Amino acid sequence: MNRRRGLSARLRLTISYAGFLLLAGALLLAVMWVFVLRWLPDVQPGPIQRTFGGVIITGPNRSDLLRGFAPAAAMALAFLLVLGLLGGWVLAGRMLAPLTRIADAARMTANGSLSHRIRLQGRKDEFRELADVFDAMLEQLESHVTEQQRFAANASHELRTPLAISQTLLDAARDDPARDQGELIERLRTVNTRAIDLTEALLLLSRTDRKSFTREVVDLSLVAEEAAETLLPLAEEREIVLDVTGEKARTAGSAELVLRMVTNLVQNAIVHNHPAGGTVTVHTEVVDGACVLRVENTGRPVPPDLIPTITEPFQRGTQRVRAGEHAGVGLGLAIVHSIVRAHDGTLDLTPRPTGGGLVVTIRLPGVRSGHGAGGAGPVHMARALETVRDQPH
């Protein structure tokens, strides 16, 4: 914004210091006048003579004192003015030095540099608190921009891959007209489906980041039940025992997004499991007013250094086991993390203490029973693969 140049804060403070000092001197002289000089008689020029017990005492009258006092008072006020200006300029400079550093850092940030930090030393005061807040803001902003740049680069790479495959298939079909068209169409359909899934995942991720959804009462236990029913054929195919247990846990949010969150977690637990004979447990409960969803799965041990990166977009975890057709697009847990943040919740990932695998715990704000439909009371739901095997196929 273009503004007309005015007096600097340092100059205004300097003038203020000098003005207050000059005013204090003037008040002191006024006190001298009120309580001392005005009580002296103002007679004809010459000394005042008073007789006390036969002793004659002579002294100056008021006019004499004023003639001698006024120049000295004026010199004192001039000295105070100069001292106030010089001292105020120095003090204001020292006081505003941290603000100058903050302004320089803000100017560098406006020019695109997010790596600069102020890091003011000394005890806590208003300027240092402002500098610390500014440093924290820059750190978060730099981390967010870096994450977005990495996300954009990864998304571009992931979207380019199916397009490049499609182009290769089309070039091969053009060069070889006798090639089986059915096989080409099926492969193109598979590649196109993957591109659509990736695009939908990116759109969902963007939607959750904006929090553009309507909140309603959602029961995590029912959502977990629905997700388990959807993914039960996949669990049966991989011989995974899928159990859903717990009690009603009502939270406020988007039923569609919460279902996607739980489905991603359960699918992730099934895919990243033992090739056969593993287990997945989904449990819901209410702890201290918060709705807790815990998904635990067996599998290979998860390296501790892999835990912080699992929820990053396109981080599939190369050391984890996954089926080829269910490998996903690398956004499963990233979408889960985004949905959890959009619902003001927390996501905690920890390796299982024994036997390998992962435990994912989500905590969402609870809703009091009076705000939702349906009764309260515990609900126990259990599903195992052996039960499904007894059903006709």
Give a short summary of the structure.
With 393 residues, this protein is α+β, with helices and mostly antiparallel strands.
Task: Please give a structural write-up.
The protein has 393 residues and is α+β, with helices and mostly antiparallel strands. Helix content is 53%, strand content 14%. The radius of gyration is 39 Å and the shape is elongated.
Question: Which structural traits does this protein have?
Answer:
disordered C terminus, alpha+beta, 393 residues, two-stranded antiparallel ribbon, 8 helices, 14% strand
The pLDDT mean sits at 78
The DSSP helix count reads 8
Question: What is the general shape?
Answer: elongated
Task: Kindly report how far apart the N and C termini lie.
Answer: 71 Å
Helical fraction equals 40-55%
Number of strands: 9
Strand order of the largest sheet: 4-6-7-9-8
Query: What would you call the structural class?
Result: alpha+beta
Ranges where pLDDT stays below 50 over 5 or more residues in a row are: 318-327, 371-393
The H/E string reads HEEHHHEHEEHEEHEEH
Radius of gyration from CA coordinates: 39 Å
What fraction strand? Answer: 5-15%
For the largest beta-sheet, the strand count, sense and barrel status come to: 5 strands, mixed
